[in-house]
Design goal:
By secondary structure, the protein is α/β, with parallel strands linked by helices. It has one domain: Rossmann fold, CATH 3.40.50. The chain has helices spanning 56-62, 83-94, 121-129, 144-153, and strands spanning 6-9, 17-21, 31-32, 38-39, 66-72, 101-105, 136-141, 157-160, 174-175. Strands 1-6-5-2-7-8-9 form a seven-stranded mixed sheet, covered by helices on one side. A two-stranded antiparallel ribbon has the order 3-4. Helix 2 (83-94) links the parallel strand 5 (66-72) and strand 6 (101-105). The protein binds magnesium ion and zinc ion.
């Protein structure tokens, strides 16, 4: 498995501010497997896009920002899924949001890579390549890992509320609909 993140380029970022988005549990429903594991779609039939992603209010709230997905997908290293599915899911999300880039850490925690959140190499990659696009940044996630990722970067974090993260105490705004970030940004 290559070192560093996989990069999917869709449109050159042209705004000076970038909204970074976790994928599973934010833009699509996380997949809950036997034993309570919070997981990712492994086949396209497991993909359920979030209702709020498909709401026009969300695209309106996100307009004026570059949109970049940063996602950990350790099932790639485990060979439980492939890059074709990642690409197909990107395309499904792009029906609703004009994504600029999707960056994917394909590694498991055991690999010791620098790109698996809460490590910051995916963000660092973006900033190095597009140095004028992060005058402001914000990040939306659903897991404690995401919170620590944003803390490591000292960028604003929004927790997308889900039933499995009710217990998570953060000092960050909690949103039940993606468009609610407009109240804070
Ligand atoms: Mg997630
Ligand atoms: Zn990685």
């Amino acid at each position: 498995m290559n070192h560093g993140p996989l990069v999917f380029d869709y449109a050159p970022p042209d705004a000076n501010r970038t909204l970074f988005l976790d994928r599973d549990g934010v833009l699509n429903e996380a997949v809950l497997r036997d034993g309570g594991e919070i997981s990712s779609p492994r086949v396209l039939s497991e993909l359920v896009l979030s209702q709020d992603l498909m709401d026009q209010k969300t695209a309106a709230a996100f307009s004026g920002w570059n949109l970049v997905i940063l996602t950990n997908q350790p099932d790639l290293e485990r060979r439980r899924t492939g890059t074709e599915l990642i690409s197909e899911i990107n395309d499904q999300i792009r029906r609703y949001l004009p994504l600029n880039l999707v960056l994917v850490c394909p590694h498991t925690g055991a690999s010791g890579c620098n790109c698996r959140k809460p490590a910051t190499a995916m963000y660092d990659y973006f900033v190095k390549r597009f140095p004028n696009c992060t005058q402001s940044s914000a990040y939306i996630g659903d897991r404690e890992t995401d919170y620590h990722f944003a803390r490591n970067l000292k960028i604003p974090f929004f927790l997308r509320r889900r039933h499995y993260n009710q217990h998570l105490q953060t000092d960050s705004p909690v949103i039940d609909h993606l468009a609610q970030i407009a109240d804070f940004l």
